[in-house]
Write a structure and sequence with these properties.
Blueprint: E1 11-15, H1 20-29, E2 34-39, H2 63-68, E3 73-76, H3 82-94, E4 97-100, H4 106-109, H5 114-120, E5 125-130, H6 145-151, H7 154-157, H8 173-196, E6 201-205, H9 206-226, E7 243-248, E8 251-256, H10 260-269, H11 285-289, H12 292-304, H13 308-317, E9 322-324, H14 328-333, H15 335-339, E10 344-348, E11 352-356, H16 381-388, H17 393-401
Helix pairs in contact: 1-8, 6-9, 8-9
Length: about 400
């Protein structure tokens, strides 16, 4: 017997390119929601992003698209045409939720406002993700992940050394977090609908999200209190030592010994060297921070003669805090991820055998499942337009010839 899924019965339309909205849709699909992805006839632009098998670009084998769109169905539709608009409204009658990641002003230009869509289906929830939200001075500005990242103030406050230019976050960090926020907010609105019987509109601004996460009460509070900004720390802790990313034989490790007993463990792990008895390295974490350059220079030979794993194992023996920095090859071989069955195998009809990330959470009774690979472009046109909406195959062919699908 197939285990029930947490969101079985939830009906979702996804219309929005690239990462944020597709990631939200993927999270819902993994829990059993029926997610129909609406792509323009030429396909979602994420299909043009790699990596690709054998480094040969293919709209059906984009690593990014395959990851973001597993467990979904794909239909093609030009919603800007009269026929496309009518088909969209027919699909909205079926849907519980519309995930909307359009360019600013796109839906409004087609007179497809959230209020009009919800007038058509009063139980519909519309979740819109934009760089700067749906209202406000900048609401019509276009922009990607990096624009919202720097608008939020995150670029000056977190990544890189103090003397470097502002840096962008990890690859599309903002887009992925916006997708998580969109999925979560949508589920909250669905829960509210159980009480009110009515849908609602959810307005998500990527810049707002990053300002909340990265500016946060600590940084804003410091600025309001004393008029200064918390600065980037780079590889080294701004105050005490040891607290730094340090190079070793095959990469980097992070060592952070705040408490006295932790520092004692570090000294034992290093072989109890004579220099550790010097007055500059005794005392508190903050005291040692005054001599961090000397400390890291003395640790360097020991670290550079050992691998990340050797250093980690030695530090663990002495209960000293240390973490190896995994690269992708390390990650795929990491025993903890393997024991948790994190990586999942899947076969795609064009891309072949794939290894995809698994669930970031485990539900004991209604589990996450990777049931189908990302769809081919328009793979489900017939089943949706004919099976769900009742069009004939002749009508479907006419729509294709007219460029509507």
């Amino acid at each position: 017997m197939v285990a029930p899924k947490a969101l079985t019965g939830l009906r979702v339309l996804e219309y929005g390119p690239f990462i944020a909205v597709p990631f939200a849709g993927r999270m819902l699909a993994d829990l059993g929601a029926t997610v129909i992805k609406i792509e323009p006839p030429e396909g979602d632009r994420s299909r043009r992003y790699g990596p690709f098998p054998e480094d040969e670009p293919s709209g059906e084998a984009s690593g990014l698209f395959l990851h973001l769109n597993a467990n979904k169905q794909s239909i093609t539709l030009d919603i800007g045409t009269p026929s496309g608009g009518r088909l969209l409204y027919a699909l909205l009658t079926w849907a519980d939720l519309l995930l909307d990641g359009c360019e600013p002003g796109e839906l409004e230009g087609l007179e497809l406002t959230s209020s009009r869509l919800r007038a058509h289906n009063p139980r519909l929830i519309v979740t819109s993700v934009r760089p700067f939200g749906m209202r406000g001075r900048d609401s019509l500005y276009r922009g990607g992940d990096m624009v919202a990242w720097h608008a939020s103030g995150a670029g000056q406050g977190y990544l890189g050394d103090l003397d470097r230019e502002p840096l962008r976050g990890a690859w599309h960090f903002n887009d992925h977090f916006s997708g998580i926020c969109a999925a979560t907010a949508s589920l909250l609105a669905l829960a509210a609908r159980d009480t009110t019987g009515a849908g609602q509109h959810i307005d998500i601004a990527e810049a707002d999200l990053m300002a909340m996460l990265c500016a946060g009460p600590t940084r804003i509070g410091v600025y309001h209190s004393v008029g200064t900004f918390l600065t980037r720390q780079g590889k080294l802790h701004a105050g005490g030592a040891p607290a730094a990313l340090l190079p070793c034989k095959d990469g980097f490790v992070y060592i952070h010994a705040y408490e006295g007993r932790q520092w004692e463990g570090v000294v034992k792990a290093l072989g109890d060297p004579d220099w550790a008895k010097e007055p500059m390295f005794s005392g508190t974490f903050m005291h040692r921070g005054q001599y961090r350059d000397e400390l890291y220079a003395l640790m360097n030979d020991w670290l550079m003669s050992r691998t990340k794993k050797e250093i980690f194992d030695t530090f663990q023996e002495h209960r000293a805090p240390c973490a190896p920095l995994n690269n992708m090859a390390d990650l795929l071989l990491d025993s903890n991820f393997r024991e948790r069955d994190f990586f999942r195998a899947q076969r795609h009809p064009v891309a072949g055998d794939l290894t995809l990330p698994g669930p970031p959470y485990r539900l004991s009774a209604t589990p996450w499942a990777l049931e189908r690979p990302a769809p081919l472009l328009g793979q489900h046109n017939e089943s949706v337009y004919c099976g769900l909406l009742g069009l004939s195959k002749a009508e479907l062919a006419d729509l294709h010839r007219a460029g509507v699908i």
